[in-house]
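Hi again,

Forgot to attach this to my earlier email, sorry! This is the prediction with adenosine-5'-diphosphate bound. I've pasted everything inline since the attachment limit keeps bouncing my files.
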Amino acid sequence: MTEPAVRARDLTLRYRGGGGSRPVQAITGLTLDIAPGETLAILGDAGSGKSTLARAVAGYTSRSVPRGVEIAGGALEVLGVDVRRLHRRDDDELALRVGYVPQDAGLVLDPHLTVAENVSLPLFQRDRAFSKSRAGGIVAEAIDAMHLTLATMPKYPHELSRGQRQRVAIARALVLDPELLVADEATAGVDATVRGSILGHLAEVQRRRGFAALVVSSEIGEVRRLSHRLAVLHRGAIVGMGGIDEVLDAPAHPYVHRLAELARARAS
Ligand code: ADP
Ligand code: MG
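Structure tokens for the complex follow:
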């Protein structure tokens, strides 16, 4: 496969205002590529459009889900699929090929299903007749890859810590062996001590399986653990992109300059 995993050209994304309110333009004129197997980190402050971009790349657009984000201009191709042409999310071409860990992923786990049932859900969504015993094996491996013990499998989400729930959500996003992982602040709200180990496990799984990834973060230390390449978003536009040190050492935008100073202060 030589086509990029993600290819955005002059992409503009917006939300339609409900009840007569004006549409919100969240991403303006964004251009980026992610090569197969490559990780690109997205960094930016709150409201800069990180989650909106993640949502669109994961295929959650206004054509595929209710209240999804609308592609208002430009082009977005994910794994060679034109996202502007997607239909219903459940059976579109991307649903099975892109793993998505939305922001506050722990909250999207089904509270009435056990951890094992939550993680195996995508397997049965893909194929209702999927073998239960094969699913058991795949789920156990996914749980283990995120360094959760097998004793968590019969538990319900509310019985887990926030960090454990995030890891279950990541395991679920990886269970179909995606070609692309979209992770939106997968460690937000998780204890700093646990955060490092979640990132370590994620980086390890990625090295082993070699999927491409778009990783949203609000923290430069976290970015360094997962990626060599960085795009900085500010008010919906890219204000710096390239190798992490390349971006921080030659900040071309005042916001990137502040980020670089912050990173230096932390490192010293
Ligand atoms: P970030 O993830 O970087 O904090 P978001 O992508 O969540 O930023 O938000 C970018 C902009 O889009 C913000 O102005 C936010 O208010 C707006 N926005 C986000 N989600 C929605 C939505 N569902 N409907 C309308 N506006 C939204
Ligand atoms: Mg966000």
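The mean pLDDT is 90. The beta strands are 6-15, 24-34, 39-43, 70-78, 81-82, 98-101, 180-184, 212-217, 229-234, 237-243.

That should be everything now.

G.
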